[in-house]
Amino acid sequence: MRQPWRVAVVGGGIAGLAAAVRLRDRAPxxxxxxxxxxxxxxxxxxxxxxxxxxPVEFGAExxxxxxxxxxxxxxxxxxxxxxxxxxxxxxxxxQAALVVDGGLRPIPGGxxxxxxxxxxxxxxxxxxxxxxxxxxxxxxxxxxADVSVGALVRSRFGDEVVDRLVDPMLGGVYAGRADDLxxxxxxxxxARTARVEHTLVGAVRAAQAAAPRAPGAxxxxxxxxxxxxxxxxxxxxxxxxxRRDAAVRELTATGTGWRLTVGPTRDPELVxxxxxxxAVPARPAARLLAGPAPAVxxxxxxxxxxxxxxxxxxxxxxxxxxxxGFLVPSTEGLLIKAATFFTTKWGHLRRPDGLAVVRASxxxxxxxxxxxxxxxxxxATVHRELSAVLGTPLPxxxxxxxxxxxxxxxxxxxxxxxxLAAARAALRxxxxxxxxxxxxxxxxxxxxxxRSGETAAEEIIxxxxxxxx
Length: 469
Prior knowledge:
This protein has 15 helices and 22 strands. The chain is of the alpha+beta class. β13 (about 250-255) and β14 (about 260) form a beta hairpin. The longest helix has 19 residues, at about 445-465. The mean pLDDT is about 95.
């Protein structure tokens, strides 16, 4: 292998940038790393903007502090590596609510993404099916099986638990439906215990016991100054050459590596590299792999995505409940699926003038037509629905922003993990110097995307001959 290595990272979201940092840390000195981002902005769904004179997240809002084993999450570890650990802050108000019958009710504790481990605790928002969660003498899920979250929970707890608890929880994260989403991919801890336990209550309790949390330990964190500081610090630490507005249109295998076709068709740039990290969504990745690995491309490209819009408003001295926000079941018939009271939830964002920043998420999978409305219409509908849920007219916004994220959230159908494992195994066997990274493969959330990028970087280092550090 020629030295120095030349590695292309296609995609400048947090997965791609985490890959670039790991390559810089572990690859031989002098490795040339280039990040290609087809848009003008790095960070993907991490985007800090400004509203009413202060930083506001127009994309991802926070990250989990711990991974499923209870250890420090990959996002926290990356922040520490980048010298940002001192900027991590936590919510000052953690209680959220559900909209039930048009009003707000506190989300009951003791659930796992809405799936209860104690049926009595959820009675204030949903009535579990009586005596359905019986011990049938065998595990809930077979050793190699995957089911939708909705199918499993409906069969054990009934429709109300799914419609009023689980569906809005998953909808807030994935903009999808519990009946369509894979248990293995969206709730891996529960999937593991469901392969052993005979009741769903038992499986939830076993999953909770396997990842204990110290009382009072924060679940979520964010960064003072906004999550774009993580993006900026990662770019600096990676030492990568960053190419913005640089679409990679084709990937071709050469005798010694890969040739990238970059830029417009009428004036393409050809770049030769030794290895490639594809840190882009599934469909763009499939297009790039269609030539060198058509079977892998077919498997990867089958993943569908949901689109969402985030409507953020600055409201002068509104009457807001002491909640971090609320989730909305689809059965309520509202356009809003979730709302966050930023300046209530995050103490570092509170303002002495009483100006409140509220953000609502709009858009569920299969309802993309709702997002065709103009920005002003979306904002007016959100304002009206927020007023109705809170039971009091909200003041007119003094500033606002509508951020549209088209095709942003992967919809992991049952069997996703097996399909991905097969695709990766085939890619590794045929083309070990190409690796996939990002939410389309390993799950949503900043820690998962960071870990995905770091793992892809390690695979590239191994394929090129190992670390020199």
